[in-house]
């Protein structure tokens, strides 16, 4: 039976279990692994970002999805600035261990543009079009 | 309205439209961009692999999803060996242009282990468990 977007919430893993998963991940030469975030109940792919070992460990320990920001070179606890947090429902590892799929419960919007999903651009009528409009005002999410 | 896993099939893009999308992609320092493959109607995340410019151009021109195999350093027209092809339904680009989401119609299984999805490993009862069993025999898919 294929895995479905509707996840069964896994138990909060203990430190030994967490280390079992972390040790199975093949981080790249920069110490990073791509992580796809998918809304657990609707199946919507929200975003893709990167984790290092510390971000993955924190995600598993806290249940709050935490990435590594390559631009800021810092841990990025999703939603700390915007309030748009991702609660971890289940974390899946792929066959060769070099990509993660986080089934999450996304508060509000995942995209910094205020859209639910980052994947809103596609070709329509020969042009690169925006398929969705923002649900939230980025200035309100990030401004001060 | 957020984008949903149920895609509207886009028209087959002409060469000018294809180049508009390709030019909007920010390939990494290796000339690659990660591409998530999602079954268009069920929302299931099947796999993640990489495309270079040629793979992306071929995907858009043919409607058959084609990746760049980093291990074989060659174009990888998904399903050429196994028959498990991916027909492109729609290709989405994310907000900052560095990740693709391919909505596909997957024939058979996406994973080289014979499973529908590559994301079949997760923590269960403190162990890294396999959530699904193969639907197809890899020997039959790849053997000779």
Brief digest:
2 copies of one chain form a homodimer. By secondary structure, the first copy, chain A, is α+β, with helices and mostly antiparallel strands.
Helix content of chain A: 10-25%
Pair with the biggest interface:
A-B, 54 and 54 residues
Number of helices of chain A: 3
Shape of chain A: globular
Radius of gyration of chain A: 16 Å
Provide the spatial order of strands within the biggest beta sheet of chain A. 2-1-6-5
Elements of chain A, N to C (H/E): HEEHEEEEEEH
Q: Please state the structural category of chain A.
A: alpha+beta
What oligomerization state is this entry in? homodimer
Largest sheet of chain A: 4 strands, mixed
Q: How far apart lie the N and C ends of chain A? A: 48 Å
* Unreliable residue runs of chain A: 1-8
Q: Report mean pLDDT of chain A, rounded to a whole number.
A: 92
The fraction of residues in strands of chain A falls at 25-35%
E-strand count of chain A: 8
Explain how this protein is built:
- 2 copies of one chain form a homodimer.
- Chain A has 3 helices and 8 strands; from the N terminus they run αββαββββββα.
- Chain A is of the alpha+beta class and 144 residues long.
- In chain A, the strands form 3 sheets. Chain A has a 4-stranded mixed sheet. Chain A has a two-stranded antiparallel ribbon with strand order 3-4. Chain A has a two-stranded antiparallel ribbon with strand order 7-8.
- In chain A, strand 5 (86-93) and strand 6 form a beta hairpin.
- In chain A, helix 1 packs antiparallel against helix 2 (53-62).
- At the A-B interface, helix 1, strand 1, strand 2, strand 5 and strand 7 of A face helix 1, strand 1, strand 2, strand 5 and strand 7 of B.
């Amino acid at each position: 039976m294929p895995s479905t977007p509707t996840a069964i919430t896994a138990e909060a893993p203990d430190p030994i279990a967490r280390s079992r998963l972390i040790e199975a991940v093949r981080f790249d030469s920069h110490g990073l692994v791509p992580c796809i975030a998918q809304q657990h109940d609707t199946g919507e792919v929200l975003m893709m970002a990167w984790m290092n070992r510390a971000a993955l460990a924190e995600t598993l320990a806290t249940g709050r999805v935490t990435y590594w920001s390559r631009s800021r070179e810092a841990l990025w606890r999703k939603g700390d600035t915007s309030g748009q947090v991702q609660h971890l429902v289940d974390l899946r590892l792929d066959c060769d261990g070099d990509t993660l799929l986080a089934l999450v419960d996304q508060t509000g919007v995942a995209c910094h543009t205020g859209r639910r999903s980052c994947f809103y651009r596609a070709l329509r009528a020969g042009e690169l079009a925006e398929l969705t409009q923002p649900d939230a005002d980025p200035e309100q999410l990030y401004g001060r």
